[in-house]
């Protein structure tokens, strides 16, 4: 059973920034976020699209000591760097 969310902010908790994620942002048009543990890839993609008014190409997730992390690849017409600047990654 899928968990229902009232707001995309309940799914997308905060951006996850490291040297590796900064490199992915520049080279692969990707950003990484810590997300709710019960969220699925479709919910994550929809939440990102709603929050940032972009189109998501793909979502990869994994669980580690920081929680559930989602690497989000944006469609070519949207810049991960520009989105990163809007949310204060730099």
Number of β-strand runs: 4
CATH C-level class is Alpha Beta
Which fold name is given in CATH as the topology? Alpha-Beta Plaits
Biggest sheet strand order reads 1-2-4-3
Could you name the CATH homologous superfamily? Answer: RRM (RNA recognition motif) domain
Sequence-ordered SSE layout with sheet pairings:
Elements: E1 12-15, H1 19-28, E2 30-35, H2 41-52, E3 56-64, E4 67-74, H3 80-86
Antiparallel strand pairs: 1-2, 2-4, 3-4
Structure description:
- This protein is an alpha+beta fold and 90 residues long.
- It has one domain: Alpha-Beta Plaits.
- Helices cover 32% and strands 30% of the residues.
- It has a four-stranded antiparallel sheet with strand order 1-2-4-3.
- Strand 3 (56-64) and strand 4 form a beta hairpin.
- The longest helix has 12 residues, at 41-52.
- The mean pLDDT is 94.
Write a compact overview of the structure shown.
With 90 residues, the chain is of the alpha+beta class. Helix content is 32%, strand content 30%.
Question: Which terms would index this structure?
Answer:
Alpha-Beta Plaits; 90 residues; 4-stranded antiparallel beta sheet; 3 helices; single chain; alpha+beta; 30% strand
